[in-house]
Amino acid sequence: MLLGRLLPRRQAALLAAILGICLIKAVTAGDILVQDGFTSDFDVINVHNDSSFGLTVHHRHGVFANTGRSYNASIAVAPAHLFHIGIGPNGCEHHRTVSEQAKLLTCEYATNAGFFDFTPPACEGNLITDGVSIQHPCPNQVNFGRKLGMTCPDSTQGDRIVIGYMQEADIADLTELITGRGWLIRHGQAYTNQSREFTPTDSFVSEKAPRTALGLTKDGAILSLVVDGIEEELVGPDLHEMASLLLELDVVQAINLDGGGSSTAVYQGHVFNMPHCLDTTEPICERNVTSVVCFWKS
Questions:
Q1: Is 60 exceeded by the pLDDT of residue 19?
Q2: Domain total for the chain?
Q3: What pLDDT, in 10s, does the model give residues 23-67?
Q4: Within 13 Å of residue 31, how many CA atoms lie on the same side as its CB?
Q5: What is the pLDDT of residue 154?
Q6: Is the separation of the CB atoms in 32 and 166 below 8 Å?
């Protein structure tokens, strides 16, 4: 059983006020036992089930605050109860486009999600959908998950959002879970350089390419961000630029998902961004992927 401790009352109250949501606890390396040489490090946050707003989707064009380079982004924001990690039948072995999966899963909006192998076809990392564990564990890469039906300290109902590095026991009761590569935002601050997956000088961090990210806003909503690019042309954001844009969007927690030619957004059955499945300028096309981030209409 995981042994964690509550944040000090003043720190918890301050962070909850910043987030605008009800904070349960943050588990850090010093708080738990090390198992098999691995130490869990993750944040656990409850968010209210807010029915006052639904899914919003839009394009955003601008320049990154930290570099001044331009970007084209596709953004979706929704309350947590509309968020789902999905995968089609035999999805780890039978890859499909995001459009195909959005139709299968009745997603109003969907993006690509987890990393995967082409040959032989396989999913990478932890993957839980609708409470069914597709595969695990993957302790050394960052995760984003949800558990349904939690109660906030003020007795209102909500969902639990979990972000960070977890062992098998940590994810046993989650409803949804996806593994990414790079913890971009933590507690409202850029966290890329502290990610376990790579060093700050890793080429994966600095590479200019299409990117997909998943985050939690200060208001407790789930945010999906896809920024266009062309990998072989070195067009698109690096991870520091992604973090900069996420902070502009009031995101307080975020992870990096699969990117490059996989980065695709689909809205109401139509491709919403400019995906380059072959990593080249032409054609504009969707790549067959495994898991997807799915937002339902209601």
A1: no
A2: 1
A3: 544 554 434 445 566 789 999 999 988 888 899 999 999 999 999
A4: 16
A5: 73
A6: no
| Beta strand extents in 156-264 (DSSP E only) | 157-165, 176-179, 183-186, 189-190, 211-217, 222-227, 251-256
In angstroms, the CA 96 to CA 102 distance is: 10
Share of the chain above pLDDT 70, in %: 87
Q: Give the CA-trace dihedral at 90, 134, 110, 184, to 10 degrees.
A: -140
Residue 2 in any domain: the answer is: no
Distance CA 245, CA 154 (A): 32
Give a yes or no: residue 4 inside a domain.
no
Structure tokens at 8: 């000090």
Q: Write the pLDDT tens digit of every residue in 64-113.
A: 999 999 999 999 999 999 999 999 999 999 999 999 999 999 999 999 99
| Side-chain-facing half-sphere of 228: CA atoms under 13 Å | 22
Assess if residue 23 is contained within a domain: yes
Query: Per-residue confidence at 8, pLDDT binned at 50, 70, 90?
Result: very low
For residue 134, the model assigns a pLDDT of 93
Q: Is 211 exposed, middle or buried (0-12, 13-18, 19+ CB in 10 A)?
A: buried
Looking at the domain assignment, is residue 95 inside a domain?
A: yes
Q: Are 248 and 75 in contact (CB under 8 A)?
A: no
Q: Which of 24, 1, 44, 292 is nearest to 165 (CA)?
A: 44
Distance, CA of 120 to CA of 221 (rounded, Å) = 36
Structure tokens at 224: 């999906």
Contacts for 118 with CB less than 8 Å, ≥ 6 apart: none
Residues 276-291: b if buried by 16+ CB within 10 A, e if exposed: bbebeeeeeebbbbbb
Range of the domain at 28: 9-295
